[in-house]
Queue: 4 jobs
Job 1
Amino acid sequence: MFESIREAWGWMISHPWFLGLCLAAAAVVAALLVDLLCSRVLRAATRWTKTKVDDEILAYMHGPVRTSVLMVASLVALDILLTEHPWKGHLINVVYTILIVMWTIYLIRISRTIFNTLKERHRREHGARQLLPLFYNLVILLLLVHGGYWILKIWHVNVTPLLASAGIATAALALASKDTLANLFGGVSVLVDHPYRLGDYIVLGSGERGEVVDIGIRSTRILTRDDVLITVPNSIMSTTTITNESGRVPRFRVRIAVGVGYDSDPDQVEETLLKACEGESEILPSPKPRVRFREFGDSSLNYQLMFWIHDPGDRGRITHVLNTKVLKAFREAGIEIPFPQRVVSYHHRDGKLEGRIAIQNTGNKEPQP
């Protein structure tokens, strides 16, 4: 039996075109069988998942799997039929190049499917809409560079000078665009860390306060209460102190400081301040408004009225309303709001009445007769 097989193989070697046809037929059958086997096994595994991404990836896989089996069969045929042919090495390189190009395209299609699914799933998140295209382009670039590198290696192209030139060009580009890169990485950190979101009221370390109206890769735009649009580079946003007044809860506390005379009744003051908050629909009922006696001032007892509102952007207007109501309520209740006072003392010196007066806001400390 073995002798018959050996004779048949020798006959086929002596007739290379017939051997080539047999190898081609075997390659087609093997490609179909491998494709069928992979499809059945992987399709059974994808039934346990709820997403359709794996089904799309599986649908894309049929072509690359069949082509890969045919290319491997071509390598075997080239090795058998063209043992010492001068074009054998070039033909093998062509086969490997086709495999690399095919699988690079397949991975790019998979990446596009995955990123489109993530983009649709997080379409309401501003950070995801900004970051996903950036990461997608980065992945595509890496796949293309990876495929190009191996194609050059297969064709025995020396990539060392190319890598050195690319390194020099990258260093020059980085130096020339360091501010742009700083803003880019700052934008990525802002979008990943989420120190603020669209619609939040923030206060920067330099004092600017406003509503966040846009978060981009390069900069963040803030609209102040004066309707002035401020554009701040993300390199600054990622390093400065940011106070997010919107926070993670939908409320914002407003503090109103007021001083009353030393002869005022503390209970009456607290009751009057709390009554000033009644009837204001924009003041949240929970937590309830509260009054705190903060300190004994130079000329007054200093109190603080605290209440919560929903939108930090309404702080200025509501403060105006409450200040007006507190002033009217104090006048009706007979509670004094004192102004700063100075004590002037006189003493006799050489039969004359002399004294020293501290003049406020002038800095004049000279004795006045």
Job 2
Amino acid sequence: MELLVTVAFAVLLLVTVIALAYLQINSASDQLALQEAQQSVNKLKNVADEVSAQGPPAKATIEITIPKGITNITIGSDTPPYIGREINFKVQTSASAQPSDVIKATLYDVTGDPQYLQSLLHPGAYQVSIEVVDDCLGTGNPCAVISPAP
């Protein structure tokens, strides 16, 4: 009987330690995903502002990392004509039912093809091109267009 109580206590202790470790790993994973999303949004914003300040036909190619948990990427606006001054990554974490927004405001108008942006929702490293054009989607205004790198 003493041995059974000792084994039961040891198993209970082991399960508790494993549960706490699992929660810590999930929390660290969520924080890492948010930090990677923040770095990618910052990089996109900074380069978009740089090339936009230079004016057309300035162009740059950068690599961004898309972490696990990205549910949506919006560059410019999420409504037609998709031009605006925001870059927004929505990150789903295990700690929250609602995705967290990682948003940066740009100094100049930016846009990105929604179909291309949906292709970036899978984790990994992506080469993207940021090019300033004179006539942004037929509006007659300049903007930075974010597209796949050639």
Job 3
Amino acid sequence: MKTLIKGLPQAAIQTAFGVVYAITLLMALCPPLYLAASGVRTTVLGIPFSVFYWIADAVIIGLALWAKYAVENIRGELDEEITPAASAVVGATEGSIA
């Protein structure tokens, strides 16, 4: 699986994740979709479908962000950790005020 992910072009990965993000954004910001879901009287896992709609949207976006991180980690595209330089004040000595 790692060799498949490493072999994919960057544009294909960006497009796939862009589609997922666009769908979740549409779910969150398009009132007709939510209004259609709020009229449903069924329950999912004991909660009303309208509440489940928002939970599902949040879970989908969370899993997409986690998957994007995992893919970037496999491809070696994550930013490397930068260690801070030793703090040294040039020209100041102990007890003096700069």
Job 4
Amino acid sequence: MKKKLPLLACLLIILSACSTTKKTSHSAVDTRINNIVWAVTSFRGKAINDSDFPNGGPLITFNMQDSRINGNDGCNTFMGLATYKDNSITVGALASTKMACPYNNIANSFYDILASKHLTWRLDSNETLRLYVNDAEVMALKEKQ
């Protein structure tokens, strides 16, 4: 019995520590951008028109509480893990569908941007979400209506 008590105490401490870590990570959720479907309105300085994409324009959803990201590049659907800290986003490996879309000329650059080590965001006064790589704007997004 005496040997089981210290083991039980250690187990409770470990479980308690895991619970505390989980609560801390949830406090970083920014409700202004979290779990909102964002439509890409500008890509590398050029306006995006949904009519240029037969299946609809590119979309991104940032799920901060679950450390996930998902969306559509204007052709293929993607999903993956992401780390959110302050205004930085670090996207891990992404899985995506592999449909052939000859009209989609932004797909490769789209994923290169998401994979950037220096991806940051800012929400401006017009409620436009702007993504930056090395302080250069690469995408502008508006909440999908």
